[in-house]
Design brief:
YciB, two-stranded antiparallel ribbon, cell membrane, mainly alpha, 2 strands, 4% strand, Inner membrane-spanning protein YciB, single chain, transmembrane helix, 2 domains
C-alpha cells in the first residue's frame, strides 16, 4: 500500500536560497540608510524614512517568500510565521505611524519560538527533532539538550531586543536587528552543533 507523502522540495542552489532568505533584511537596511533622514508626506500625514522603509519591506519579504515557494515548492512554518509577522506589524506601523510596532515584531518572533520549543519540552518532545531530524540525525538526548539551549537563546534574544529598542537609537536597533541578532544566533548554533558532536549519529553505521 502506497503512503501519501508530501512531495520532496525541489533542489535549489544553496546560494540562491540564502540570497532569498537574507536579501529582504539587507534591503531593508539599505533602504533605511538611504531614507532615514527623509520625511514623506502622504495625504497630509508625515512619515519618517524608517516608516517608509518598513512599508517597502513588506512586499520585498512577500516576493522573496513567493520566489522560494516557486523554486522549492515548499515553505517552512518558521518562514511563513515570520512573513506573517512582517505583514501584520508592518501594517500596524504604517497605520499608527509608529515605529515601535515594527521594533516589537522581533521580540514577538523570538518569544514565540522560545515558547513553542519550551511547550514541546513540557510535553516531553523536541520540536526541533520533529523539524530537523532528517537533516541532522542525532540521538534523542542530543535533541533535548539542543532544544533546551535554543529555547534559552530565543528567550535571551527576545529580552535583548526589548532592551535595545527601548534604550538605544533607531540606528543602533536597525544595525543590531539586521546583523547582531542573526550573527549571534548563527554562532550559537554552530557552537552547539560542535559541542553535541558525540550525540550525532553516523548514518553509515548499520
Amino acid at each position: 500500500m502506497t503512503e501519501n507523502r508530501a512531495p520532496d522540495p525541489t533542489p535549489v542552489s544553496p546560494w540562491l536560497k540564502q540570497a532569498l532568505e537574507l536579501g529582504p533584511p539587507l534591503l531593508f537596511f539599505v533602504l533605511y540608510l538611504r531614507l532615514r533622514d527623509e520625511v514623506f508626506t502622504v495625504a497630509g500625514t508625515e512619515y519618517s524614512g524608517f516608516i517608509v522603509a518598513t512599508v517597502a519591506f513588506v512586499p520585498i519579504t512577500l516576493a522573496s517568500m513567493a520566489a522560494l515557494w516557486w523554486l522549492t515548492g515548499r515553505l517552512s512554518r518558521m518562514q511563513v510565521f515570520t512573513a506573517l509577522m512582517v505583514v501584520v506589524f508592518g501594517a500596524l506601523t504604517a497605520w499608527f505611524n509608529d515605529e515601535r510596532f515594527f521594533k516589537m515584531k522581533t521580540t514577538i518572533v523570538y518569544g514565540f519560538f522560545a515558547a513553542l520549543l519550551g511547550l514541546g519540552l513540557l510535553m516531553g518532545r523536541s520540536l526541533l527533532a520533529y523539524v530537523l531530524a532528517e537533516a541532522l540525525p542525532m540521538r534523542a538526548e542530543g535533541w533535548t539538550i539542543l532544544t533546551r539551549r535554543l529555547t534559552g537563546m530565543f528567550a535571551a534574544l527576545a529580552v535583548g531586543n526589548e532592551i535595545v529598542w527601548r534604550t538605544m537609537s533607531t540606528d543602533a536597533w536597525v544595525k543590531i536587528e539586521t546583523f547582531g541578532f542573526p550573527i549571534a544566533l548563527f554562532v550559537f548554533l554552530w557552537w552547539q552543533i560542535v559541542a553535541l558532536q558525540h550525540h550525532i549519529e553516523d548514518e553509515g553505521k548499520g
